[in-house]
Every structure is written in structure tokens, then in C-alpha cells.
Amino acid sequence: MKRMDQRVWKVGELAAEAGLTVRTLHHYDRIGLVHPAHRTNTGHRLYTESDVERLYQVLALRQLGLGLDQIADLLEGAVPMAQVLTAHRDYLAAQLAATKDLHALVDALATTAQSKPETSTDHFLELIRRTVMVDDTIKNYFTEEQLTQLAVRREELGEQHIQQVEADWAVLIPQVDAAIAAGMDPTSPEAGRMAAQWMELLEGFHGGDEGLRDSMYRMQAEESARIESEYCGPSPAQIAFITAANTARE
Questions:
Q1: Does the reported pTM lie above 0.90?
Q2: Which among 40, 9, 41 has a CA at the least distance from the CA of 25?
Q3: How large is the angle between the packed helices 224-231 and 210-222, nearest 10 degrees?
Q4: 32 and 72 in contact (C-beta within 8 Å)?
Q5: pLDDT in tens, 27-54
Q6: Rounded Cα gap, residues 41 and 180, in angstroms
Q7: How far is CA 134 from the centre of its chain?
């Protein structure tokens, strides 16, 4: 029985207040990370204050770089909230220091650029390296040289192109999901069309560079749950479907 004075959140309400997607909360429920304490008579999820604390633990540990499987194992031992908060605080302190260093570099370059427009390209390459180094997860899969290559490539493509690619992914992934749900044959022409577009979008990321492609595939394989739940990326089922469709059209 829940206390009469205890606050509860429906899944949509909690997602909105926490800045997450409903899909993420559904995923966490499905894999056993954050189960809602109650459900309505019609089956709708109801989260309590203790569920919110549990959700914070998951997100804090995720930001510390732990995988969802590791987090599940860790939380089975009922990690004290004080321990999670301390670790999270120390991580954010390190991130804050890195951001301050980056701010100082940008500030210095901005001042230099005003008085000396021909600022050395090496300075901007250093800025690129420092910028992309902020995300520790990405650093686990890509070398600094690759990250610099990606940053330069993004600059060359331009933000308008990047936004169009993101929009294309947002359309294609649900289409593949619907094809799987409908039982579409991966060897069909329609599946082949989706696979061709999928590979074209990936090509836009790695530019045909085998090293970048392999690093990207490794990150997808090892971080698939996070990519799916936090960034609405492709699921293993979607990737398997596209792989089969791509093989059939080759």
C-alpha cells in the first residue's frame, strides 16, 4: 500500500519532469532497472518518490561511465545514496575543471582572433581536440586523431547538413521498426531500399574510413542499450534486420 500523502507520477509526467523520454522509462522498466512501484487498474505505470531516487542512481551511475548491466549488478547490492552522490559530485568536479580549461582556451583564442585574424590553424585544432574530449564515453571508442577527424568533417559538412541527416535518421528508424513489426521480409525490395539509405547515412558519418567505421560499430555493439534508451538510436533487432537486408542486396 502506498502512503496517502506520497506523491506519484505517471510515466509521461515523470519523463517530462526528469527530461527523459517515455521510451527510456519503458526501457528501464523492461530491463529491471527502474520498476514503477504501482500500476493503475488499467495497467498504467505509477512512480513513487523511491522510484525517483532509484532513477537518479541509474542516471548518475550511467554518467560515471557504467553500462546498464553493470548498474543493475551494482544496484542489487543496494548502493547507498550518499555513495552515489559523492561519486557523482567528484565526476562533475572533474568535468567542471575540463570545461573551465576549455573556456579559458576559447577566451584566449577569441581575444587573439580580434587582434590577429590569421590565428594559427594549430590553435583551432587544439580547440577541436579539447572540445571533443569532453565526452568520456566517445573517448573509449575513438582515438583523439579520429575525434579531430570527425570534428573537422562536421565543420566541412555544415550544421544544416548535420540537421538534415539527424532528421533522416528520425524518419528511417521508425520505418524500419514498423517493417519489423509487420513481418517484412528482409530480402524484399522495400527492405533493400531502407538498407541502402541506412548505409548511406552511416557513410556520411565515417566517410568510408575503415577505422572510423570499425570504431563506430564497436561502440554500437557495446553501448547499444544506452544508444537506444537515451538517444533513441537503433535497437539490436533493427540492426539485425538492416544487416540481413543489406546482405540480400549485395
A1: no
A2: 9
A3: 80
A4: yes
A5: 889 888 898 988 888 888 899 988 998 8
A6: 31
A7: 14
